[in-house]
Specification:
The complex is a heterodimer.
Chain A (H helix, E strand, L loop, with lengths): L19 H4 L2 E13 L4 E13 L3 E5 L6 H8 L7 E6 L2 E2 L5 H11 E4 L11 H10 L6 H14 L15 H13 L5 E5 L7 H18 L2 E5 L3 H5 L3 E6 L2 E2 L2
Helix pairs in contact in A: 4-5, 4-6, 5-6, 6-7
Chain B lengths: L1 H10 L1 H33 L9 E7 L8 H13 L3 E7 L11 E6 L2 E10 L3 H5 L3 E4 L12 E6 H8 L8 E4 L12 E8 L14 E5 L10 E8 L5 H14 L4 E6 H44 L1 H10 L3 H27 L1 H5 L6 H31 L3 H7 L1
Parallel strand pairs in B: 4-9, 6-8
Antiparallel strand pairs in B: 1-10, 1-11, 2-10, 3-4, 3-7, 5-8, 6-9, 7-8
The chains are: A alpha/beta, B alpha+beta.
Chain lengths: 248, 399
């Protein structure tokens, strides 16, 4: 596999993840972000001049009614989509003009994703699913990948389920696998799109506790889209969106 | 990544089995058609071993129940030979090149046996057919004194019966199962060796041949005489009519038929080509069907795996690496199908199936392997490009 990063990863010294200095270091900055979906007959404004800075070690939740642009904002933060206007900066570097290859490299190194519907590959074992992001890092050996995947699974309490397949797990366990997959590459930021949306309240609490633990103990930066006010209130900062605009 | 692809394919083995079977059967069909085409192509390019141009086939019939005295036949041949435009004439048997008539027997020499076509030939036969003499000489008057039947044999028969040892002057006979003694006329004295000949059709392989000398003073009366006539270039219907009139001038009871050997060759070629073309068309249709099937299955696969594609993009895959992954998966599946096909195909050269040498089989295996990989790569290319173009944010939202 090719080297996904045309430009070398940012190797400038970063403050320790859970140090006070780290909390003031912006890891993700969105400036005047606009996103407009254009069809032949209609123009839909999904996001309108959104400005948001995510600092290292923060746990930010994004709330708002359905269709207000939460997931679109998360896709833009995750470099899965391009804004119609405005700039996105990761670690202070604007990524506007980055190529597909460079963006893929940044996603792989800096960002972990957790989805509402888990997005696990049913034909791969739990261990193989967790290893997936590391497959796009050709510098890692198979042994290293395996060790890191096992460590990530251990962190989410699923080290006994490595040979299982997603179909053999409960919803909560699947989401734990997805979190392990997001963690395995040691990203600077985890983007979670309604991670408890498909779970009952008990499972939802478990996953929320896991994410809070990762943020508090390991200093992982997390941005979470949620509909659940109670869970949003547990995070350090709450951003509210309404009709594509930031309202709080 | 290769290990990851194998893991994916193994875990989806039930879904991939259909694809692997399709590849396997395509390989087998391509190998079969390839082996036939390579064999006949190779044969076609090989020399015939004789010159069929400007050779006519003259059949003289005495009439049902009638006999043809040899002296009278010789008179006819002399008169035909004297016609302007006729170079030479030769008496032979009915199994002339490019017609549906064969006469073969099994011969033996010191434990070696071979099946060979048997042709009767007089002393002028090689002047008409222009066989390529490799060793020894054609029949001549000196052979009248021979106690054995003089024969000329083809090189392939020479190799089978005598190996690397000398063949000229050797005496062989029919392949016997019992210890009974042979009669002198059944003992064949090798006077010459000619190049291999391909007399059946343009696409047939060379077959061993034995030319037995027709004795000039043979008093046997025949019902039908088969005569080969070499004419000057450019001769046509007028000379054919003259030949027929010449025969009729000797005796009105005899009938004649004159055919051009090249016409026989072309007629036999058409007849031989029909099944080959049919087989090729069937093979082509099958391959087109398989290609469309593969294309459809891959297209469907990609539409079913949009979420996975979106996920992989989110995890750090580029569009190009997604494209390569799908191409890679198809090539791994192809390899599994081809390996199954290879396992079957290599049995043919190993067992020497259909008495063919290994070379056409090996070439057919190589051609089928290349063709299957090219077909699957072409079929996978467009769907893989499609996969690469899937927008990750859209694909992830769809589920």
């Amino acid at each position: 596999m090719e080297n996904l990063l045309a430009t070398p990863p940012d190797t400038r010294p970063q403050p320790p993840l859970n140090s006070p200095a780290a909390a003031e270091t912006p890891v993700l900055q969105l400036t005047n972000i606009e996103k407009v979906y254009q069809t032949n007959t209609i123009e839909t404004v999904a996001l309108n001049r959104v400005n948001l800075t995510i600092n290292r070690g923060e746990f930010v939740s994004i709330m708002g009614p359905s269709g207000c642009g939460k997931s679109t904002l998360l896709s833009l933060m995750g470099l899965l989509d391009e804004p119609t206007g405005g700039t996105i900066a990761i670690d202070g570097r604007a990524v506007t003009s980055y190529s597909d290859r460079e963006l893929a490299g940044l996603r792989n190194l800096k960002i972990g994703f957790v989805f509402q519907s888990y997005h696990l590959i049913n034909d791969l074992s739990v261990l193989d699913n967790v290893e997936l992001p590391l497959l796009y890092r050709p510098s890692l050996s198979g042994k290293e990948r395996r060790q890191r995947a096992l460590a990530a699974l251990d962190k989410v309490g699923l080290s006994a389920r490595t040979r299982h397949f997603p179909g053999q797990l409960s919803g909560g366990q699947r989401q734990r696998v997805a979190i392990a997959r997001a963690l395995v590459g040691s990203p600077e930021i985890i983007l979670a799109d309604e991670p408890t949306g498909n779970l009952d309240s008990v499972m939802g609490e478990e996953i929320m506790d896991l994410l809070l633990g990762l943020n508090r103990q390991d200093g992982v930066t997390i941005v979470m889209v949620t509909h659940d006010e109670q869970q949003a209130l547990k995070t350090k900062r709450l951003v509210r969106l309404f009709d594509g605009s930031q309202v709080g | 990544m290769l290990r990851h692809l194998f893991t994916l394919i193994w875990n989806r083995k039930r879904a991939n089995m259909l694809l692997i079977s399709e590849v396997f059967f395509s390989f087998v069909v391509l190998f079969g058609v390839g082996a036939v085409l390579i064999t006949i192509g190779k044969n076609y390019l090989a020399p015939h071993g004789f010159d069929y141009t400007d050779v006519w086939r003259l059949q003289v019939r005495a009439g049902q129940g009638q006999q043809m005295p040899r002296a009278q036949l010789d008179d006819v041949l002399r008169q035909v030979k004297a016609l302007p435009g006729v170079r030479t004439v030769a008496l032979t048997s009915g199994n002339m090149p490019f017609i549906f008539s064969t006469n073969n027997s099994t011969f033996g020499y010191e434990g070696n046996t071979a099946l060979a076509n048997v042709y009767d030939a007089d002393d002028r036969y090689t002047d008409v057919m222009r066989l390529h003499l490799r060793e020894g000489r054609w029949f001549e008057a000196a052979d009248d004194a021979s106690n054995h039947r003089p024969v000329v044999i083809s090189q392939d028969l020479r190799e089978t019966l005598f190996g690397k040892g000398p063949a000229l002057g050797k005496i062989f006979t029919w392949s016997h199962h019992g210890p009974e003694a042979t009669k002198p006329e059944d003992e064949f004295l090798v006077t010459g060796v000619v190049d291999n000949v391909r007399t059946a059709n343009d696409f047939a392989a060379a077959e061993p041949g034995v030319w037995k000398r027709l004795l000039p003073h043979d008093t046997t009366s025949w019902e039908t005489a088969n005569v080969l006539v070499r004419v000057a270039p450019g001769q046509g219907g007028e000379l054919q009519e003259k030949i027929a009139r010449t025969v009729a001038g000797v005796t009105r009871q005899w009938t004649t038929e004159v055919r051009v050997m090249n016409d026989d060759r072309l007629s036999k070629r058409r007849y031989t080509l029909v099944p080959v073309v049919g087989l090729s068309i069937m093979g082509l249709f099958l391959i087109v069907n398989v290609a469309l099937g593969l294309f459809g299955v891959l297209w469907y696969n990609i539409s079913q795996r949009r979420a996975e594609i979106g996920l992989r993009r989110a995890m750090g895959a580029t569009g190009a690496s997604i494209s390569r992954q799908f191409l890679g998966e198809m090539l791994v599946v192809t390899t599994l199908g081809v390996l199954g096909g290879l396992l079957l195909a290599v049995q043919f050269p190993l067992l020497g199936a259909f008495d063919l040498p290994a070379q056409p089989y090996m070439l057919a295996i190589a051609a089928a392997t290349v063709a299957v990989y090219v077909i699957t790569a072409l079929c996978a290319w467009q769907p893989s490009r499609l996969a690469a173009g899937i927008h990750p944010a859209v694909a992830l939202r769809e589920e």
